[in-house]
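User: Design a sequence. Structure:
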C-alpha cells in the first residue's frame, strides 16, 4: 500500500475561487442547443421549448456562467439571424460544423434560458467573418436600455429590459486554420483592440477576454499571446486558454498525468501576460479565462464535425461517451483550475449537453448524467472559497505525454508524476474545509494523511468517492447510474489530522467541519 502526506495551513492560501471558475459552454453544435437545452414538443419542455429534465440536471451540476453561441460556430454567425419573429429567421449553412442552422434559438432565447437555469450569460462576438462593427451592434442590442435603433429593436422583439451581459469573448480560436477567417496574431490583436474600444465606449462595465492560442500544442503558442496582448493589454481583462485532454494512445497512466499539463499551460500564460505587463511597467494583471476545457478524443479523431453529412439540422456529432477513466482525467483538470484560483478567474467546461458534455439526452426521450458530471458537480458545489496551498509528498510515476496533431505528433516524457493530485478549499462562511483528491495509481490504495493546520478540531461532514472496477464503464440511457458517487468509508480524524484510504483509480471528496478560533 502506498502512502502520501499533505500539509495545509489556514494562513497560506493561493486565492479565492471566482464564481465564474465554474462555468460551462453552449454552442450551436450538433444537439447541444436543438435536442439538448431546447426541444419544443419534448414532454418536459415548457412553453418556450426549454427541456425541463435538462434544466433540472443543469441546476444540479451547478455551472455559474455559460459561454454562447460558440466556439467555431461564432466565427460565421450573424446574430441578427437569431432575433425577431421566429418564422422570419433565415436558415443558413454553418461552415463550422457543416450543418444547417435553423436559427429558431438565438440570443434572446439564450438570455431567457440563462435566467431559467440561474446562470450568468457570457457572449462571444464574431471576429471571423465579421468584426468590431458587428460586435458593437450586438452589444448595443443587448445592453443599451433604449432610445436607439438597436436597443429599441430588442424592445420591439419583446425584451424590454437590457440583458446586461457583463462578460464578452472577442472571437474564438482565431489562430486556428479551421476557423472561419483565421487571423495572424497581429491581425487579430488589432481587430480585438478596436472591437474592445468600441464595446467599452458603449458599456464601460463589461469585461473582455481576448483569444489566446487554441491550445498549448499550437506552433504559435507563446508568441501568439505575447503579440495579441501587446496590442490589447490596455483594453481587456482576460486572455483565453483551451485544452482538451486525450487518451488517443489508450494509455491510462499517461492520460491521467496529462491533466498536469494544464497547470504548466496556466503558469506559462501567466508568465507571458506578466511579461507584457512588465514591459509596460504596469501593475495591471491580465486574468485567465479557461473558456474551453474537457476530455475529448474519440469523436475528434473521426473528425465528425467536418464530415459531409448533407447539411443536416442538429446532427448527433461530437457525442463523446465518457467512461470512468475520463472522469478521473477530468477530475485532474478540475484540480488544476482550483489550484490556480489566483489567476484563473473564469473557466467553461466545453460543453454542457450532448456535444462533449456531462449531460446526455435522447431527442424525445430521457436525459442522464455522464461520468464527468460528478467531479464538476463536486467542484462547483463544494469548491467555493479560499484555495489553500498544499505541500504534497506522494509516490510518483513516470510516463509519456502523447498527442497526435494532424500529420505530426507530440510525445515527451513526464517524469515524477505524483499519484496524488489534490486541492483543498476553505469555505469561511460555511465553516468547512474540503479536500478534493485523485488517486492516479491504478493498482494500489493510497493512504493519505493530511495535516490541516490552524482550524482547531476537525470533524467529518461528508466523504464520497467515484470509482468503478472497470475503467471503461460508462453511463447510458439504460444504465444511467453505472457510475455514480458512493460514500467513502474509513476516514479517520484525530485533532487536525485526517487519514483517508483512497481506492486505486478514484476521485474523492472529503468535507470537514472546522471549528476556527
Ligand atoms: O468545443 C468544441 C470546439 O472546440 C469549439 O467550437 C472550438 O472552439 C474548439 O476547437
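Assistant: Done.
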Amino acid at each position: 500500500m502506498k502512502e502520501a502526506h499533505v500539509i495545509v495551513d489556514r494562513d497560506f492560501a493561493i486565492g479565492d475561487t471566482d464564481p465564474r471558475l465554474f462555468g460551462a459552454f453552449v454552442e450551436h453544435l450538433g444537439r447541444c442547443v436543438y435536442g439538448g437545452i431546447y426541444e419544443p414538443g419534448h414532454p418536459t419542455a415548457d412553453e418556450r421549448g426549454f427541456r425541463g429534465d435538462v434544466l433540472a440536471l443543469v441546476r444540479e451540476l451547478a455551472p455559474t456562467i455559460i459561454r454562447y453561441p460558440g466556439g467555431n460556430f461564432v466565427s460565421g454567425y450573424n446574430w441578427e439571424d437569431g432575433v425577431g419573429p421566429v418564422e422570419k429567421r433565415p436558415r443558413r449553412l454553418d461552415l463550422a460544423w457543416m450543418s444547417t442552422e435553423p436559427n429558431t434559438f438565438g440570443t434572446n432565447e439564450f438570455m431567457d434560458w440563462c435566467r431559467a437555469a440561474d446562470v450568468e450569460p457570457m457572449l462571444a462576438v464574431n471576429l471571423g467573418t465579421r468584426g468590431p462593427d458587428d460586435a458593437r451592434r450586438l452589444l448595443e442590442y443587448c445592453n443599451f436600455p433604449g432610445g436607439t435603433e438597436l436597443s429599441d429593436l430588442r424592445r420591439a422583439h419583446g425584451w424590454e429590459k437590457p440583458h446586461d451581459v457583463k462578460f464578452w469573448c472577442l472571437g474564438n480560436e482565431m489562430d486556428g486554420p479551421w476557423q472561419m477567417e483565421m487571423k495572424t496574431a497581429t491581425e487579430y490583436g488589432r481587430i480585438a483592440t478596436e472591437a474592445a474600444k468600441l464595446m467599452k465606449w458603449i458599456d464601460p462595465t463589461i469585461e473582455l477576454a481576448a483569444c489566446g492560442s487554441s491550445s498549448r500544442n499550437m506552433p504559435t503558442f507563446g508568441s501568439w499571446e505575447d503579440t495579441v496582448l501587446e496590442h490589447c493589454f490596455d483594453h481587456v481583462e482576460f486572455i483565453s486558454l483551451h485544452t482538451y485532454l486525450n487518451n488517443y494512445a489508450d494509455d491510462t497512466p499517461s492520460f491521467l498525468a496529462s491533466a498536469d499539463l494544464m497547470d504548466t499551460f496556466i503558469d506559462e500564460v501567466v508568465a507571458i501576460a506578466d511579461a507584457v505587463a512588465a514591459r509596460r511597467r504596469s501593475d495591471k494583471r491580465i486574468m485567465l479565462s479557461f473558456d474551453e476545457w474537457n476530455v475529448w478524443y474519440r469523436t475528434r479523431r473521426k473528425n465528425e464535425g467536418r464530415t459531409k453529412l448533407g447539411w443536416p439540422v442538429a446532427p448527433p456529432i461530437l457525442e463523446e461517451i465518457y467512461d470512468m477513466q475520463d472522469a478521473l482525467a477530468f477530475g485532474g483538470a478540475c484540480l488544476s483550475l482550483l489550484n490556480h484560483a489566483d489567476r484563473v478567474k473564469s473557466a467553461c467546461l466545453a460543453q454542457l449537453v450532448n456535444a462533449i458534455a456531462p449531460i446526455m439526452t435522447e431527442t424525445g426521450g430521457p436525459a442522464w448524467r455522464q461520468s464527468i458530471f460528478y467531479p464538476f458537480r463536486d467542484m462547483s458545489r463544494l469548491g467555493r472559497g479560499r484555495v489553500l496551498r498544499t505541500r504534497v509528498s506522494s509516490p510518483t510515476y513516470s510516463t509519456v505525454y502523447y498527442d497526435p496533431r494532424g500529420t505530426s505528433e507530440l510525445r515527451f516524457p513526464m517524469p515524477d508524476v505524483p499519484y496524488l493530485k489534490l486541492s483543498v478549499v476553505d469555505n469561511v462562511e460555511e465553516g468547512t474545509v474540503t479536500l478534493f483528491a485523485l488517486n492516479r495509481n491504478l493498482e494500489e490504495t493510497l493512504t493519505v494523511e493530511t495535516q490541516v493546520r490552524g482550524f482547531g478540531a476537525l470533524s467529518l461532514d461528508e466523504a464520497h468517492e467515484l470509482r468503478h472496477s472497470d475503467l471503461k464503464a460508462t453511463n447510458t440511457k439504460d444504465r444511467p447510474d453505472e457510475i455514480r458517487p458512493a460514500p467513502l468509508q474509513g476516514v479517520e480524524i484525530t485533532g487536525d489530522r485526517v487519514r483517508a484510504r483512497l481506492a486505486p483509480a478514484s476521485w474523492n471528496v472529503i468535507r470537514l467541519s472546522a471549528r476556527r478560533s
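The first strand starts at residue 2 and ends at 16. The mean pLDDT is 96.
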